[in-house]
Write a structure and sequence with these properties.
This protein has six helices and two strands. The chain has 137 residues and is an all-alpha fold. A two-stranded parallel sheet has the order 1-2. The radius of gyration is 20 Å and the shape is globular.
């Protein structure tokens, strides 16, 4: 009886260790951005992405990334379904048959693609607000 109780407790305990390891990995590598609790301050890389967004993308996708008068998609919603690889492919090469042009020859975009992804992912996750941001100190 004691052995079966021991085996049962092992089967219940091992998955919790595995979950804990996955959670730790997600926290360590997790989100591609860091934001303050209120979402108004971001890490340097995400801030560069925000700066790129406001200088290159805002005219089509709007100030808060929910779509703009330029016909750009709502990125806050779109980023919920887009992997990082698909995001990079779309931004760098555009989407044929749409207004989305490729930006691989634009240094501000090509050099800050990871920060741009982080900024837009944070907006999509509801962790970064859609107004002016500041860099974390």
């Amino acid at each position: 009886m004691k052995i079966s109780a021991l085996i049962a407790s092992l089967f219940l305990t091992i998955p919790s260790f595995a979950y804990g390891a996955d959670a730790a990995k997600a926290d360590a590598g997790g989100a591609p951005y860091k934001a303050s609790e209120e979402g108004k301050k971001v890490d340097e890389n995400t801030y560069k992405g925000y700066s790129t967004y406001t200088s290159v993308c805002v005219s089509c996708h709007g100030r808060d990334a929910t779509g703009g008068m330029g016909g750009g998609a709502n990125l806050v919603e779109g980023m919920k379904k887009l992997s990082k690889e698909n995001f990079k492919e779309t931004v760098m090469n555009g989407r044929p048959g749409t207004l989305m042009a490729g930006f691989k020859t634009v240094p501000a975009v090509a050099d800050n693609i990871d920060g741009l992804f982080g900024y837009l992912k944070g907006r999509s996750d509801g962790k970064i607000w859609g107004k002016s941001l500041e860099k974390m100190q």
